[in-house]
């Protein structure tokens, strides 16, 4: 399929990024290779959206630090950016609402691009196909890139945790947007999809990316190492490691080690 006829895709990763690790960045590269290898997609952008402070997860440091570290981590990438919208919301925002927000942004950018050639109102009329499903209706904008949620297999499996995700949100994510899921040790996304009627129904919208270089990098491990004054070098981009060191010095922290604001 020629480049022009491929569907443009924007990948959106939501999470704590507490702190961002090399594996978060690898996740984007793996997903892009996988989607482009199908011959159907061209991945044009990746967005990291750190969760807001309202998420109140134990040990979550302030969003401004998580954002700054994610920005430093992506400064050498020509396609992955960090977006602050979610982290600036006063309350925790459910992921489906974050996805909707970004889809609306992409559609608005698309309309801006089109506005010179076709009158806005007319374009709006011809540019939308209405997709309806359980209780809500959405408009898919022609020409707008497809937005897919990018996550690790642990997040996919968290769909099965009672009272954590609304069923309608899961439906909307997998039926309207699409999901790219990177395998992670301890998870079996194929089995999980096979056992869920909803996920099975929309299995063609769920792209499982197999990470062959299995590794167990996690922000939990990084925080633990930092608490113990152990090196986190090569688990995080150097710029992020340095940012933390500067932070400690800047705060006149009582600790003379590389221990940082990760207290839990
Ligand atoms: N090693 C990994 N392999 C696959 N996916 C990963 C990996 N590390 C993180 N992710 C994914 O990155 C996204 C953001 O995750 P998150 O910020 O929770 O990182 P984490 O390393 O899991 O942190 P924590 O240990 O604090 O939960 C999630 O979709 C998560 O599944
Ligand atoms: N119902 C929901 O929309 C829902 C539930 C749980 C987690 N999440 C999101 O999943 C991500 C999980 O991140 P952590 O693995 O760091 O907890 C966060 O972005 C969080 O907002 C969403
Ligand atoms: Zn996690």
Automatic annotation (TrEMBL):
GO biological process, one term: NAD+ biosynthetic process
Annotated signal sequence range: none
Localization annotation: Nucleus
InterPro entries in the record: Cyt_trans-like, Euk_NMN_adenylyltrnsfrase, NadD/NMNAT, NMNAT_euk, Rossmann-like_a/b/a_fold
Gene3D superfamilies listed in its UniProt record: HUPs
Predominant cellular place of this UniProt entry's protein: nucleus
GO cellular component, one term: nucleus
Cofactor or coenzyme needed: Zn(2+); Mg(2+)
Pathway: Cofactor biosynthesis; NAD(+) biosynthesis; NAD(+) from nicotinamide D-ribonucleotide: step 1/1; Cofactor biosynthesis; NAD(+) biosynthesis; deamido-NAD(+) from nicotinate D-ribonucleotide: step 1/1
Top-level taxon in the UniProt lineage: Eukaryota
Magnesium is among the record's keywords: yes
Gene Ontology MF annotations: ATP binding; nicotinamide-nucleotide adenylyltransferase activity; nicotinate-nucleotide adenylyltransferase activity
Catalytic activity from the UniProt record: nicotinate beta-D-ribonucleotide + ATP + H(+) = deamido-NAD(+) + diphosphate; beta-nicotinamide D-ribonucleotide + ATP + H(+) = diphosphate + NAD(+)
Domain Cytidyltransferase-like: 12-224
Record keywords, A-Z: ATP-binding, Magnesium, NAD, Nucleotide-binding, Nucleotidyltransferase, Nucleus, Phosphoprotein, Pyridine nucleotide biosynthesis, Transferase, Zinc
Record carries keyword Nucleotide-binding: yes
Documented EC number(s): 2.7.7.1, 2.7.7.18
Protein family: Belongs to the eukaryotic NMN adenylyltransferase family.
Subunit structure, interactors included: Homohexamer. Interacts with ADPRT/PARP1.
Protein name: Nicotinamide-nucleotide adenylyltransferase
């Amino acid at each position: 399929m020629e480049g022009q006829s491929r569907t443009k895709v924007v990948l959106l990763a939501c999470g704590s990024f507490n702190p961002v690790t090399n594996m978060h960045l690898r996740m984007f590269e793996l997903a892009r290779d996988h989607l482009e290898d199908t011959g159907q997609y061209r991945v044009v952008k990746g967005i990291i959206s750190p969760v807001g402070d309202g998420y109140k997860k134990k040990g979550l440091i302030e969003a401004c630090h998580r954002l700054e570290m994610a920005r430093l981590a992506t400064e050498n990438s020509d396609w992955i950016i960090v977006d602050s919208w979610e982290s600036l919301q006063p309350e925790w925002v459910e992921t489906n609402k974050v996805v909707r927000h970004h889809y609306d942004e992409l559609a608005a950018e698309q309309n801006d691009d089109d506005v010179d050639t076709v009158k806005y109102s007319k374009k709006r009329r011809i540019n939308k196909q209405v997709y309806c499903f359980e209780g809500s209706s959405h408009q898919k904008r022609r020409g707008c890139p497809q937005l897919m949620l990018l996550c690790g297999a642990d997040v996919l499996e968290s769909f099965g945790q009672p009272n954590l995700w609304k069923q309608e949100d899961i439906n909307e994510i997998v039926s309207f947007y699409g999901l790219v899921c990177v395998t992670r040790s301890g998870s079996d996304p194929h089995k999980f999809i096979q056992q869920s009627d909803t996920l099975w129904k929309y299995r063609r919208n769920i792209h499982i990316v197999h990470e062959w270089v299995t590794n167990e990098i996690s922000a939990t491990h990084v925080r633990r190492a930092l608490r113990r004054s152990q090196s986190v070098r090569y688990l995080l981009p150097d710029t992020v490691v340095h940012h933390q060191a500067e932070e400690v010095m800047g705060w006149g922290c009582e600790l003379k080690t590389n221990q940082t604001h990760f207290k839990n």
